[in-house]
Amino acid sequence: MTFLALHGFTQRGSMWAEVAAAVGGEWVTPDLPGHGDEPACGWREAVAGIGSRLAAIAAPRCLVGYSMGGRLAVAAALDHPGLVDRLVIVSAGPGLAAAEERRRRRARDRELAAHLEKVGMAAFAREWLERPLFAGLQRRPAEWREADLATRAGNRAEGVAEALRRLGQGAQPWLGHRLGELAMPVLLMAGKNDPKYLDMARDMAARIPRVVLAEMPGAGHSVVGERPAEVAAALAAWPAE
User: Fold this and answer.
1) What is the pTM of this model?
2) Chain-centroid distance, C-alpha 21
3) Pairwise CA distance, residues 95 & 104, whole Å
4) What whole-number distance in Å separates Cα of residue 46 and Cα of residue 164?
C-alpha cells in the first residue's frame, strides 16, 4: 500500500513524518499548491494534479488528507475513483453548501490573504497557530512546536495567500451531494474537542456507503499534530476490505 498524503493550510508535506514512521509502508507527501516551492493554482488544477500523482503510483493506493488537504482529497477521489483504493479524511468536510455562504467565505479569505501579504509569513504563522482551533498543539513539546512554526513560516507569503484565495472553502464547490459516489472504503477522523468538524464527519459518515468514523478522544482540529501515534494506530487498525 502506498499512501499519498496531503497537508493542511500553511503546512508542508513533512507534517506527516511522525504518522508515516509509525504506520510504515511507502508514503508520498508532496507540498500542495502555493506551499513550499509549488506555484499556486485554482481548484480544478489542484485536483487534477493530485490525480496525476495518484496515476504515477502503483496500486494499491491510499489517499489521505488533513483539513485543506482533506477537502482536496475528497474532490480527487470523486474525480478519479479508479485511482483511489482507500480514502482517509482527517478534520475536513465537503465544502460549504450555500452559495451565499461560499461568497461570504471568499470575501473573508481575500481579506485574510491581504493581511498575510502585509504582515509576512512568519508573523502570520504565529497568528494562525494562536487561533483556538489549534490550542491542542500546545500540549506538544516546545521543540516540536518551534519546528512546526518554522516549517510554516518557511513558506512564501504570496504563495500561501494565493492558495487561500484559490483553494479556500469559498473557492471550493460543494461536494456533499456527491459523497454517496465514494465506493471505496473511507476512514473519517475528527477530534472530539473539535465539535464543528466532528459534526461534519458524522454528517459525511451518514452519506458514504463504506465508512468508518474514528472520533479521537482528547484531540482538537490538529489531530495529526496533536496525537500522531493515535492517528497511526487508527490507520493500522482500520479493517480495509
Assistant:
1) 0.97
2) 19
3) 13
4) 13
Res. 164 pLDDT band, cuts 50 70 90: very high
CA dihedral sign, ordered 82, 83, 86, 92: negative
Neighbours of 137 (CB within 10 A): 17
The domain spans of the chain are 2-237
What is the C-alpha separation between 136 and 193, in angstroms, rounded? 9
Topology of domain 2-237, CATH: Rossmann fold (3.40.50)
Task: Give CA separation, 28 vs 24, 25, 71, 104, 148, in Å.
Answer: 12, 10, 18, 34, 19
Axis-axis angle for helices 157-167, 99-119 (nearest 10):
180
Which grid coordinates are listed for 91? 478534520
Containing 128, the helix (H) or strand (E) segment is helix 121-129
- In single-letter form, the type of residue at position 176 comes to G
